[in-house]
Design goal:
The complex is a heterodimer of chains A (about 550) and B (about 200).
Chain A: H1 3-24, H2 56-70, H3 79-122, H4 135-167, H5 174-197, H6 210-232, H7 241-261, H8 268-303, H9 310-323, H10 339-351, H11 353-367, H12 373-376, H13 378-401, H14 403-409, H15 413-443, H16 450-483, H17 489-494, H18 497-525, H19 543-547
Chain B: H1 4-30, H2 44-55, H3 108-111, H4 115-123, E1 141-144, E2 166-169, H5 171-182
Antiparallel strand pairs in B: 1-2
The chains are: A mainly alpha (about 550), B mainly alpha (about 200).
């Protein structure tokens, strides 16, 4: 086969397909009004903030910020519609609570494993007697606890909460999601156990043996069922942008996982290209859309203002769907893989700037004039930083795909820092914010200690800044040392040591922040702390509380 | 957007494009590539050692893919020529790796063939390479007061040898070293053509 012809035809074909799809979905693409963006508000609700994570005083300040910028709600809000939302919230409460509990447990497991692995990189004789504690295994336990524990449990929990709200329909069949969640977590326990015991499929991001992988597939399907039922039985005509991202993420991930895990197909170099097709798409087509959907929902909801340009979000969505899928090959630049594939991946990595710019401009325009809200809303503080980190990590990723940059950063800790900017700075921050918003709706109770939210925020922010800056510098110096033939290889090891220690210090702050978060979560659900007058778990909501 | 069918089918077409570009076409191009000249299938001891390599997560610090000379000084460091698809014909799972916290190992069997060195280095890397950050793997070995007849006893530098005891290799350690010794992609292959766009599986 002529590879140039394949490349050209694939490119032309896919570009035409992209245009056709945007055209076919265009209803109102050039319409300047953005009625679609208003679907997350009840009639008359625009101008009214919703931020259950803030204190009463914070909510007052938020509403004043909003009123100063744009004026408050115009009419009387429709209480029928708010009751509808309360019913949607009530239908998801227990299952969302279950998913968030799992997410927090895996966050703590992953934190402990990650910090241990980090320290081992500069203290190689620490904890070496046990096979399961060796760097290669504990690092992998960290990655899998994040990739299959914390991130999907938090993300799916948020999806289960948001989607019924967006479809104005109670969640149908929550028990399937429960069963799926139980199966999923059982699979993860088995998977981490087998990695610890040294049984592994040996592919990065896909270490858990495929036999256990079938449980993930089954569990994932069960979790998705209620969301599909709800989608089909929805009462709303228009699908909001968050629904696109979340629905597609739920359809993409099983294909990714099954193609990657089916035994006996992949081997040798082809397996390496498949490996990075999966490794990059699980970030780009699963965690990223779940987190972006959260930003698109919570940010306008908190400041009581629809997304500025709904059409830009359409471009952002289809751009992501098209370009992101093909960027994985940049992990193999310089490797023994077909060159056309690497070139294709580099081109599409640069093209990712289009959807990222669309998202960034949109968020910035929506927030304009409301920056004061960042001070009063805990949710917005996390989600705002997370959104900013999405832009930063995407631009960084595009640049890293260029051969001239990649030749330095490839094979170094710089890549690890970049991965954390995406999965921690962006995805995890957004999920923290979304959980702060959601939990008061689930428990019908406010967070007992607002200062703990601030402490969490500042611990993980300073910790992560230390982590990222330190590791990026160390990785860059490592790459430069490795590229200089005159310097021995050991130079590239020695030069990283102070930066690896810096990373461990930053990581320790992040772990502390997670402990504060977990403790606060426990205090909330066990009804500790002030405001005990309000009832605890799973009480039905009154519409009065929802408006407050 | 109002139609969920359009949405999902659009999304799946996008994924199909990415799958064909990064999975299906590479599969068609290289899945039946011929092994490089002189490359032999792994022996069963080497395969067992490969499992130890995978279980211990060596791949997270060691790549197996020297880059071309015009890109990086991998060859000058003694890591070997740039690899081609045929070099991995027997590799399942692949172990190309994406990190070089330690050096590339595609030709470690050529560079460091000594079994004594490999075993001792696994037991305590810093006794052989000062400043190394590789973890020690004491759980692949056993300390004994006296060696039995069939034991493989390690010849350790005095700094690493435990006082009054001998260190013997467990079977896993011996298998792992067999695998490391088998890593040899030094036989010449057809060099890549000057035009990189026309290379790929054919080179």
């Amino acid at each position: 086969m002529n590879t140039v012809a394949i490349l050209l035809s694939a490119f032309v074909l896919s570009f035409v397909a992209l245009l056709v799809f945007i055209w076919s979905q265009r209803t109102g693409l050039f319409d300047r009004s953005s009625r679609g963006a208003e679907v997350i508000f009840a009639p008359g609700e625009i101008g009214r903030i919703e931020e259950p994570a803030a204190t009463a005083a914070g909510r007052g300040a938020l509403q004043r910020t909003r009123d100063a910028a744009q004026g408050g709600a115009t009419g009387h809000h429709d209480s029928d519609e708010l009751r509808e939302r309360a019913r949607a919230d009530a239908s998801t409460g227990p299952v969302v609570f279950f998913f968030f509990c799992c997410a927090i447990v895996w966050l703590l497991v992953a934190s402990a494993a990650g910090l241990t692995a980090s320290i081992k990189l500069h203290e190689p004789d620490w904890l070496v007697q046990q096979a399961w504690l060796t760097f290669g295994r504990i690092r992998t336990i960290h990655l899998n606890a994040v990739a299959y524990g914390w991130a999907p449990m938090a993300g799916l929990g948020v999806a289960l909460f948001i989607i019924p709200r967006l479809l104005k329909t109670p969640l149908i069949g929550a028990r399937y999601a429960f069963a799926g969640g139980v199966l999923w977590n059982a699979a993860l326990i088995a998977g981490l156990g087998s990695i610890g015991a040294g049984v592994s499929d040996g592919l990065e991001w896909l270490e858990i043996p495929w036999q256990i992988g079938t449980l993930f597939a089954l569990g994932g399907a069960l979790i998705a069922l209620p969301l599909v039922f709800t989608l089909v039985n929805r009462r709303v005509d228009h699908l909001y942008v968050s629904v696109w991202y979340m629905a597609c993420a739920l359809f993409w991930i099983p294909v990714l996982f099954i193609v990657a895990k089916v035994p006996g197909v992949h081997r040798g170099v082809e397996q390496a290209t498949m490996n990075w097709w999966f490794g990059h798409n699980v970030l780009g087509l699963f965690y990223t859309p779940l987190a972006l959907a959260s930003v698109y929902y919570f940010l306008p909801k908190i400041i009581g203002r629809p997304i500025q340009s709904y059409n830009l979000s359409l471009l952002g969505f289809w751009g992501l769907a098209f370009f992101y899928g093909q960027v994985g090959g940049h992990h193999l630049i310089g490797g023994p893989v077909p060159h056309w594939m690497i070139t294709l991946s580099i081109v599409q990595s640069m093209m990712m700037i289009i959807p990222v710019a669309a998202f960034t401009v949109n968020q910035y325009q929506t927030l304009q004039g409301h920056l004061g809200a960042l001070r009063d809303s805990p949710t917005l503080r996390f989600i705002g930083v997370g959104g900013l980190m999405y832009t930063a990590s995407s631009i960084q990723g595009s640049l890293e795909a260029l051969r001239s940059v990649n030749v330095i950063t490839h094979f170094t800790h710089y890549t690890v820092a970049h991965a954390h900017l995406g999965l921690y700075g962006f995805v995890s921050f957004v999920f923290f914010g979304a959980m702060y918003f959601t939990m008061p709706r689930v428990t019908a109770r406010e967070w007992p200690y607002p200062w703990m939210i601030s402490l969490h925020f500042w611990l993980v922010s300073t910790g992560f800044a230390t982590y990222f800056i330190s590791l990026s510098i160390g990785g860059w110096l490592q790459g430069e040392a490795m590229l200089d033939a005159a310097r021995p290889f050991m130079d590239s090891v020695a030069v990283t040591l102070p930066y690896l220690q810096g990373r461990s210090i930053g990581g320790a702050f992040m772990v502390l922040g997670h402990l504060v978060f977990a403790l606060h979560f426990v205090l909330l659900v066990t009804n500790f702390g002030p405001q005990r007058d309000k009832p605890a778990l799973f009480r039905r909501f009154s519409s009065r509380e929802l408006v407050s | 957007m109002k139609n969920e069918l359009k949405l999902i089918s659009g999304a799946m077409v996008m994924l199909a494009l990415s799958t064909s570009a990064l999975v299906v076409i590479p599969y068609l191009q290289v899945h039946d590539v011929k092994p490089s000249p002189g490359l032999k299938p792994y022996t069963s001891a080497e395969l067992r050692g490969r499992e130890v390599y995978i279980a211990s997560g060596c791949v997270y610090c060691h790549s197996q893919q020297p880059r071309p000379k015009e890109m990086a000084p991998d060859f000058a460091r003694g890591w070997g020529r740039a690899t081609v698809a045929g070099d991995y014909a027997y590799d399942d799972p692949h172990l190309l790796g994406t990190s070089r916290t330690g050096p590339d190992l595609m030709n470690i069997g050529v560079r460091q063939p000594s079994e004594d060195w490999q075993l001792g280095h696994l037991y305590q890397p810093r006794a052989y390479v000062p400043g190394s950050t590789m973890p020690a793997f004491p759980f692949l070995f056993e300390r004994k007061a006296r060696a039995d007849k069939e034991d493989r006893v390690l010849e350790l530098p005095p700094s690493a040898a435990p006082a009054g005891q001998v260190v013997v290799a467990r079977p896993e350690a011996l298998d792992l070293v067999r695998y490391l010794q088998s890593l040899n992609r030094s036989t010449p292959v057809l060099a890549a053509p000057a035009d990189p766009a026309a290379s790929g599986a054919t080179r």
